[in-house]
Amino acid sequence: MSEEVQGTTSSEEEMEDKVISPEKAEEVKLKARYPNLGAKPGGGSDLLRKRIQKGQKYFDSGDYNMAKAKMKNKQLPSAPAEKTEITGGHIPTPQDLPQRKTSIVASKLAG
Amino acid sequence: VLLERDKRGVGRTDIISTVEFNHTGELLATGDKGGRVVIFQQEIENKSQPQFRSEYNVYSTFQSHEPEFDYLKSLEIEEKINKIRWLPQKNAAQFLLSTNDKTIKLWKISERDKRPEGYNLKEEDGRYKDPNTIMSLRVPVLIPMDLMVEASPRRVFANAHTYHINSISVNSDNETYLSADDLRINLWHLEITDRSFNIVDIKPANMEELTEVITAAEFHPHQCNTFVYSSSKGTIRLCDMRASALCDKHSKLFEEPEDPSNRSFFSEIISSISDVKFSHNGRYMMTRDYLSVKIWDLNMENRPVETYQVHEYLRSKLCSLYENDCIFDKFECCWNGNDSVVMTGSYNNFFRMFDRGQRRDVTLEASRENSKPMQVLKPRKVCAGGKRKKDEISVDSLDFNKKILHTAWHPQDNIIAVATTNNLYIFQDKVN
């Protein structure tokens, strides 16, 4: 008799665990992967400030214009070749790269 | 619903970033990531016949914005067109406002179909004649020529935004317009470029205290003193410009109360409003957040009157959508001409329509592979879990790179424009 009761209780507990909202379940997943993620819900102001400042920084305008000029020269030979050359030799300018949003997820190195 | 293909070229920078019909629906403007604006014009075949079909063909293409460099901050300024808004037509020419992150431009689009011929002092190619050779005088005449559409920049409204412009909205007075960035909203006069008035400023004294940003703003369609702006926290503020010069204090605050027990890390992010649009009749407004579309009655601030789930099945995928940044995608929404149906985009090149009166909704797909031109679109269904029926698509096989962020509805007819990443689709109701 008591065993049966125990059986029902544990399955009820299981059911309660499953009823946890899908959103909360996702949050648990995220926290497991990134334990350093901001304590405040939504990441707080860090997230917003990252949103506000988008765009690639250059050292100065000379840097920017050099990069633009280099990309123009490299584009002349052949379009497909330039894809592999994008990394390494020079800083590409916005019109040459597909936009990739900066990751909001803090790196594990950050305090 | 029929399908039509557009004639835009497909290239790397041709990512469509905004779509807008003009006030008659005759013109459709698109802006792209490369700073170009392409305008399509409707050409109606056999309007007298019951089965008329309208086609949109390229009318004008021009480079609106170029990439720039902010010397002070050493940051590049993208040429991507964030928004296009048409001015109501006042004369033969058409005017539109286009904006990138920092600068708004007023463009005049005019037609030229006559040219002068028969000058006395000039040859046909423009060279000046030797006056001694002229023996008689004639009156130059205007002769017809092939239609030429010219776009010229009439005003440049620059240097008024520290942050990135997300919205522009023309006032019903046809003299002023607003521009909104993450923290401020400015009011401009269409004729004056060297001054603008700041009407909303939510920048905190200390940026560390920043909790909320402005995500969208729009003027009321009839009341020239009223505008709304939405925030990243899911609130909408309605402001009355008669109340004070600086509208930091709202007249109405629209916010749906949240169940605190349901709150998660994602709650605020998915509640961020990506678009706000007044209904044509001016009595309602619609907001789009990550998972739903909400209709608000302007007379009721404490909750929306209608809520439509766009893709609720994504709620159990929020973790991966956060990791691939999709959770920050900004979907737009739009009303049909008589405010009975609303539309918004989703992933996998799906878009959704909600019929408010008939309480029906449908999921359609904008794709060349899955439907042919002039073929009625087949409704789609996403299977959230469990057994997948034939013709259903499972959540895990959705392509999150194929997003429909921008859609537009013709102001009168059942013609819609849907932008996938690189292509523009125009659909029309089948008339039979």
From TrEMBL, chain B:
Belongs to the phosphatase 2A regulatory subunit B family. This is Serine/threonine-protein phosphatase 2A 55 kDa regulatory subunit B. PANTHER family: PROTEIN PHOSPHATASE PP2A REGULATORY SUBUNIT B. GO terms for molecular function: protein phosphatase regulator activity. PP2A consists of a common heterodimeric core enzyme, composed of a 36 kDa catalytic subunit (subunit C) and a 65 kDa constant regulatory subunit (PR65 or subunit A), that associates with a variety of regulatory subunits. The keyword Repeat applies. Gene3D superfamilies: YVTN repeat-like/Quinoprotein amine dehydrogenase. PROSITE patterns: PR55_1, PR55_2. GO terms for cellular component: protein phosphatase type 2A complex. InterPro entries: PP2A_PR55 (IPR000009), PP2A_PR55_CS (IPR018067), WD40/YVTN_repeat-like_dom_sf (IPR015943), WD40_repeat_dom_sf (IPR036322), WD40_rpt (IPR001680). Keywords: Repeat, WD repeat. The keyword Repeat applies.
